[in-house]
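TL;DR need structure tokens for one chain.
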Amino acid sequence: MLVFLDETTRTSERGHSLGALCGIAIPEQLFADVTADVYSMKYSSFGEAFAKEHELKGSLLLKRKNFREADRPGARATLTFVTDLLRYIVRRQFVTFGVVCFNEAMASFRCDDPHRLDVTYRALFERLDTYMRNAFPGRHAKIVFDDVDYGSNAARSAAIANFFNRTVIGRGYDTIIRTPFFAVSQAQNVGLELADVVTTVYGMRFQGNRSVVPFFQILKRSLYVYQIGTQRLTTLKVFRNVGA
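>> reply
TL;DR here they are.
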């Protein structure tokens, strides 16, 4: 299973900082088909040049101007494309994941301490491990982050690898390959493009943007729902207070 992750930082409508680390799981054997499908959708909506040369960026597709000018043909076509893309994710039964954090100290998802992984990552990996155990027993998830820069990649890789290999909890999440991978979204990596759109929708929803609610209502159907005792959980976790 390929699990593509992206992140965003935003300021809520009430002035609070928040970060969102979100993504999408795509079975390896379906990745080529998904790449072809998304290319076809981009081609149909925006033309050959865009499909070949431009990556999908949620911040551009869902920019405020497109909502303000939704009756304009170009904006309408863009918002329709996003709707179709999210419905495609749901129809293909791809599961999305996410952590939204209002704790300013953790909202950047930096890995400054290689020996201590923030609770945000641990919550995400717990949900991914549960999903893999229940839905794909015997298979493994490969975590793929968008390439940022060498220093950030190295710090993130060290903290995550140490967590999986040197902690009791991390070793227990044995459905996840114990080292993260990095890829370049600008290289037409459809997995990272979809993760970018997913992250934008979830980030804008908890930012308090009302315009994105219809898109969130579609996308939330791709969350995996499971039960622990009497508690109903999903693959989206929100840390709302500083002490979380």
